[in-house]
Amino acid sequence: TDTAETTLGVKANELIADHPDESTMYLVAEGTEAFLTRMALLSLAERTVDAQYFIWKSDLIGKLIFKGLIEAADRGVRVRLLLDDITLDAETEENVYVMDQHENIEVRIYNSFATRGFRAVDAITNPMRLNRRMHNKSFTFDSQYTVVGGRNIENNYFSANVRSNYADLDIIAAGPVVKDVDKQFDIYWNSRFAIPVKAFEHNQSEKNKLDILKVELSDFAEAKKESEYAIDLQSSEMYQRIVNGLSGADSRYIFRGDATVIYDDPDKTLGKSEDETVYMTSLMRPHIEKIEHSLELISPYFVPGEEGTEYMGDMVKRGIRVRVITNSLSSTDGIMAQSGYARQRIELLKAGVEIYELKATAKSKASRSLRRSAEAKSALHAKTYIFDRKEVYIGSFNFDPRSAKINTELGVICAIPEMAEFIASTLFDEKLQETTYKVELIVENEVVDGIDVAQEKVVWVETVDGKEIRHMKQPETSAWRRFNENIYSILPIESQL
Fold first, then answer.
1. For 494, what's the count of Cα atoms within 13 Å in the CB-facing half-sphere?
2. N or C: fewer beta carbons within 10 Å in the chain?
């Protein structure tokens, strides 16, 4: 369907008119802005909306976007919703069954459990297949704008959780890159793993339930109008910026240039090897192999293993500066994955890799302004890799074995040096001391059986008001949390992390 004459088509054309062969990217880091972006684009859609997500919860954020999808469908927009099955809870499952009753909405579930009510049985009888998940995240509107990044659909990805929120990064894109995300979506939508919810035997939804759901979602939204989150949304100009076609948006966050969409082939879900089908790692490898000066990684789950540790060490030997920002034990939501990184931490430091761990108390200036999340813990969730400050990858791919070999992933490599430099300088130069602990290796002599023995130890260096504080234990953690990490680190589970 040609959507060039739609409202979004006209706005996108205005953005790219001077450079039609290049894509325009707008960076969105703050949670409320990421939510308003999606809602604004959704409100403007006239022909098609395609959403593809690993997690979709029926919480505040999930329900408000569900409401927006139904309203779009009521306007005649064709809505396609593709969700992975592993985290699909009962409420969300029922909601999408009901939404699928709408003549303009179709929902498919990726790599679904065969026994809907008895997942544990299916997990036991078919563990290899069900271990492989669709981790891709995209939201595309009228084939004119797309949102790609690390966020799932849940409160804590959008600064709406009072206890813990994720630091994440999206790009809103217009131009040629959108067609490539469209193509990716169609490949997954038409794959053997995308099962229409109409095919599920226990799906007993009836059309009258759709009217009930509409009323429930409307009442829910009305009840939340005076919430602190709603008030924070009202104080943001992001919705209007999107409606105005990004006019008035901060030009520091807008970039133009060549962008390449990369993703795993769905056949990875079958367990096919990298030699048998297309893996994202094989598409990313050429960009890494041509690095001459610097590799800067931001990954919430950083599990390089022995092979990755050796590879990064070799890069350092060749004069390449390798720097990593990942979660600390206090900020992470995945102690198991953290243990995989902790196992290699000393070897990484010995190899010359520079490591920084996010403080659980780190807040961006934007999130500090939100009364609701002022005391909320921060956890890193962005997956962003910068190559020589000339190219930058943004997407769903974690630097771990699960993303590399098990799950399917999606992302965009932007060959835009100004964009790569802006992200790297912001995260690795300007905000590093404020938001992270620098991880260092020290050697202390200890007496063991009457003999002086050199012991390598990790210290976490925090800078406060220009003064260094050196932590000999992982900061802001309990003995129990450290014990759990130690237990996981001795288990043979690295390949699954």
1. 17
2. N
